[in-house]
Amino acid sequence: MSTKTAAIACRAPKKKFNTFAVVCRVILISLVLIWIYPVLFSLQTSFKTLEEFFANIWAMPHSLGVDNFVKAFTQGHIGEYFINSIIIAAVSLVSIEVISVMAAYSLARLRIPHTGVIIMLCFAIQLLPTETIIIPLYMMMSRLGMLGVKYLPIIIAYVGWSIPGTTIILKNFFDTIPKELLEAARIDGSGEIRNLFKIVLPLMKGALATCIVMNFTFVWGELMWAKTATITTVSGLPLTVGLMNFKGEFGTNWPLLCAAICMIVIPLYLVFLFLQKYFISSLTAGSVKG
To answer: Angle at the Cα of 108 (from 103 to 109), degrees rounded to 5?
Structure first.
């Protein structure tokens, strides 16, 4: 009798069927499929000829030729647009990160009057829709003569739009760094600039990676202002504006356009894969209590 009782006690309890967990997983899988389907469709279409595409847009390509990629890079000037976007993104990201780091550190660690008002203004700027700013911004830059300068109007707008949100994110991470650590460094004779670059920034890799990924995604894929700022010029066009040139007067070469799209999204995936470790660590930093 005692042996049977011990055997029953050793049995693992049966797991209850969790309906909520199943529903959540089904929803998440559905969202992933909805997100990944356009990418797979563009990739599949990029290998087709125009005749194959119009014969059956859902069918698999007969061969994995790279003719569309070559034509997009040469005849479609994707290489030129790619260089323009790289320059715009590089200058914008460096400017955004440097200015935001300085501003966030000042708001978090220095005695600046009306810090709360400054933060509220940053939030207010973030709440403004981009569409409400484009026309006044275009008029201002037109009067200042900036629209004729290559890259300048696009970079200035991107930097101005991204600094408030980036500053808020970095300030929140700065607030998590123990004050005692910086006070000990000050006692040893270290100044604020040295503390920032030698102590604080090495601890901020996750936050910086988060801001870089978000800002790069915005700068790389923004279209409305880029199109508005380059409406009177054909030089310095970024990739998003250059894609619009693939639409012909009497039709669109969809396989060629999909090949160009696939080439454009590659840098986004590379940036995320390169910074993935830091990005995920920053998102989960506050999820577990120490």
So the answer is: 100
Angle, CA of 285, 169 and 289, to the nearest 5°: 20
Q: 155 pLDDT band (50/70/90 cuts)? A: very high
Give the integer Cα–Cα distance in Å for 23 and 46. Answer: 35
What integer pLDDT is reported at residue 284 of this predicted model?
56
Partnered with residue 257 across adjacent β-strands are: none
Tokens of 82: 């790619």
List, for residues 46-77, the tens digit of each pLDDT value: 998 888 888 888 888 888 888 888 888 888 78
Q: Give the 3-state DSSP-derived string for 80-115, with helices as H, strands as E and coil as C.
A: HHHHHHHHHHHHHHHHHHHHHHHHHHHHHHCCCCCH
Q: What pLDDT, on a 0 to 100 scale, did the predictor assign at position 54?
A: 87
- CA-CA distance, 109 to 103, in Å (whole number)? 10
Higher pLDDT, 224 or 279: 224
Give the Cα-Cα-Cα angle 15, 18, 20 (nearest 5 degrees). Answer: 165
Kindly tell me if the per-residue pLDDT of 248 is higher than 70.
Answer: no
In the chain, the domains with their CATH numbers are 77-246 (1.10.3720.10)
> Which letter, b or e, does each residue of 24-36 get, where b requires 16 or more Cβ atoms within 10 Å of its Cβ?
eeeeeeeeeeeee
How big is the CA angle at 213 (ends 210 and 219), to the nearest 5 degrees? 135
Rounded Cα–Cα distance for residues 204 and 177 (Å): 9
Q: Which residue has the tokens 């040893």?
A: 188
How much of the chain is in helix, strand and coil states, percent to nearest 5?
75, 0, 25
Neighbours of 6 (CB within 10 A): 9
User: 98 and 221 in contact (C-beta within 8 Å)?
Assistant: no
